[in-house]
Amino acid sequence: MTRTAFITGGAQGLGLSITEAALEAGYGVMVFDRDRAALDRLAAARQDVLCHAGDVTDAASIEAALDAMPSPPDLVVNNAGIVRFHPLLETTEETWRSVIDINLTGPVLVAQACARRMIPRGSGVIINITSTAGIAASPGVNAYVAAKAGLAAMTELMAQEWGPLGLRINAVAPGMIDAGVSAPIYRDNPEARNRRGGAVPSRRLGAPEDIAAAVLYLASDAASYVQGHQLVVDGGLTISVMSQLPRGTG
Ligand SMILES: NC(=O)c1ccc[n+]([C@@H]2O[C@H](COP(=O)([O-])OP(=O)(O)OC[C@H]3O[C@@H](n4cnc5c(N)ncnc54)[C@H](O)[C@@H]3O)[C@@H](O)[C@H]2O)c1
Questions:
Q1: What is the enclosing helix (H) or strand (E) of 128?
Q2: What kind and span of H or E run contains 183?
Q3: CB–CB of 41/11 below 8 Å?
Q4: Is residue 173 part of a domain?
Q5: CA–centroid distance, residue 82 to ligand 1 (Å)
Q6: How many CB atoms lie within 10 A of CB 137?
Q7: Angle formed by the axes of helices 106-118 and 59-67, nearest 10°
Q8: Does residue 127 lie within any of the structural domains?
């Protein structure tokens, strides 16, 4: 029987790469996204994808999408997310709440709704897309740091509560990826792209395909004993603090 995948925010950016990799791996895919124009572009390009408009912060729209799937998903990728760039002192309560809502509360609502359907079957994989910003706080992205750190913690909680019931829950933390929410940082600024890429041990920025490959690994049976883990895919960025320091002379 065809395995099915439910991918939030899968109509563009990293999510689109994950969608393409899941299709390539033989999943029947439903993409759940709030951007109707991006969904229309995807539907025109790929007739084999079920496209569903909805919002991860709206439990009713999540339920409606899952009801439209032929079976409970085998794979859920909690990828939808937004980032807003403001120093903390200039962050309004409205911005704070909406970033937490979409990046933390939404993925938890999606995971709950999917787990309720997967647990009776006794199998399923959930992958939460976090960020290295939740590991080493990036100044200027305010609530995004808190939301991604919170989602990493919730990955561990879900693994403990739902692992014994047959599910596997892990996270992928992308570093600096030259696409999606980070595209504005690099667009028209090749110098920033080169400087940032050059500061990473792997000497390049990441590509969406790097993230999709990590997701597909965690989804596969090769990762059947990987539970509650956050797989950092950042070319070594977060472990490279010592190499940023001047060398001692002794
Ligand atoms: N691009 C990067 O450098 C980077 C780095 C670390 C983590 N991430 C994470 O990767 C994920 C994908 O980001 P991206 O860079 O591809 O961004 P993107 O903006 O290109 O794509 C995000 C998708 O999510 C959808 N979306 C946003 N809010 C939604 C909501 N409330 N309900 C349903 N859909 C919604 C958008 O319409 C869009 O299609 C996010 O969780 C992001 O935090 C990205």
A1: strand 124-129
A2: helix 183-186
A3: yes
A4: yes
A5: 5
A6: 14
A7: 40
A8: yes
- Domain range enclosing 211: 4-177+207-231
Domain-located, residue 78: yes
8-state DSSP, 169: E
Is position 21 within any domain?
A: yes
Q: DSSP string spanning 187-235?
A: TT-HHHHHHHHHTSTTSS-B-HHHHHHHHHHHHSGGGTT--S-EEEEST
Q: Looking at the whole model, is its pTM more than 0.85?
A: yes
How many folded domains does the chain comprise? 1
Report the CATH number at residue 97: 3.40.50.720
Q: For residue range 117-156, what is the model confidence (pLDDT) as tens digits?
A: 999 999 999 999 999 999 999 999 999 999 999 999 999 9
* Separation between Cα atoms, residue 179 and residue 142, nearest integer Å: 20
Residue to mutate (ligand 1; options 8, 17, 32, 34; most atoms within 8 A of CB): 34
Considering only CA atoms, which residue is closest to atom 42 of ligand 1? Answer: 81
Q: In which residue are the tokens 């439910």 written?
A: 6
